[in-house]
Amino acid sequence: MSYPFPRARLRAALLLCLLPAGLALADDPPAGLSARANGWPRVGEPVAVVVHGIDPIHADLDPLEADLVGRGFRVLRFVYDDRAHLERGAEAFAQALRDLCAATRPRYVAVVAHSMGGLVARRALTTAHGLQALPTRFRLITIAAPFGGFVSANFSWLDFGLGPRVYRSLGSWSRFIRRPGELIPSADHVKLETLEEGKRLDGEDDAKVKLRRQRRKRIDRAVRRRHVLALGHVGSVRDAQRRVPPGTRLLLWVYLGNRAPLPPGAAADPRRPAAGLGALLTGQ
Predict the structure, then answer these.
(1) What are phi and psi of 78, to 5 degrees?
(2) Residues 47 and 110 sit within 8 Å (Cβ to Cβ)
(3) What backbone torsions phi and psi does residue 73 show, to the nearest 5 degrees?
(4) pLDDT tens digits, residue range 67-92?
């Protein structure tokens, strides 16, 4: 899960001119919803849907899905074309949620979206996609999502149409970023940001999206709660031991329930994180 623009800037955009048409960012499984370890939801059961970012290594999300299973959710994964314009991914996700709700009638759906998946998921839950007519409540948790876009992605037009269309929607000046839309009344948004500078994972740099690129006033004014995690980009969803990091796990407990055991040292009161976790997160 990496972004080509945050550091390479204009030079990276110019290099896109040399990329062949039809460049694939990842060998993704087929698009749409798929059931995870605990199977397809039954009628009325609470559902959690996990949404990946750009160029995904899908196994990175396995610990997150296992955590959600432990919290009593039926866990699904949504896969979309990460090369296409993000509006297409949002439309596909909105339709998938519509079909899911028609088939299983869940009263509650948690959407946990990492990185670019947060942009797709939030746009799907805006009034533009018509999900406000559903009786289902939604809780959206985004992790390390680049809601501010990337300045250098504004120059992606220099690829003469040869590069992936997704770059057009990641520019900080793009319509997709500047006009994120209004959340439906039945959805609330919890935003987990990451302070990634200097973070490494598996011996590699894990600073992909700067904190300021995760912020956008129109997004932040509408969130229920915002937290900053002192974790890397991929490190916000899994650590070197392939576990959900304690800071992320604590916040999943706060906002999605305490059906799973708390991380070691976590406080019983979600408003008062344990001292050992204080360095990992701050609430805003």
Answers:
(1) -105, 125
(2) yes
(3) -90, 150
(4) 999 999 999 999 999 999 999 999 99
Closest CA to 100 of 62, 54, 135: 135
Angstrom distance (rounded) from CA 169 to CA 167? 5
Mean pLDDT, all residues of the chain: 84
- Domain range annotation of the chain: 9-283
pTM greater than the 0.85 cutoff: no
**Which residues are within 8 A (CB) of 24 and not within 5 positions of it... i.e. 6 or more apart?**
83
What distance in Å separates the CA atoms of residue 10 and residue 76, rounded to the nearest whole number? 37
Q: Are 41 and 33 in contact (CB under 8 A)?
A: no
Q: List, for residues 162-193, the tens digit of each pLDDT value.
A: 678 999 999 999 999 999 999 999 999 999 99
- At 51, phi and psi to the nearest 5? -120, 130
pLDDT tens track for 208-266: 999 999 999 999 999 999 999 999 999 999 999 999 999 999 999 999 986 544 444 43
- Domain 9-283 listed as CATH 3.40.50.1820: yes
Q: Which contacts of 26-31 are long-range, i.e. CB under 8 A and separated by 24 or more positions?
A: 26/54, 26/55, 26/56, 26/82, 28/56, 28/58, 28/79, 28/81, 28/82, 29/58, 29/79, 30/79, 31/79, 31/80, 31/81, 31/92
- Joined together, the tokens standing for residue 130 give 């018509």
* 228, two tokens: 């900053």
In this structure, the dihedral spanned by the alpha carbons of residues 178, 184, 190 and 192, taken in order and rounded to 10 degrees, is -30
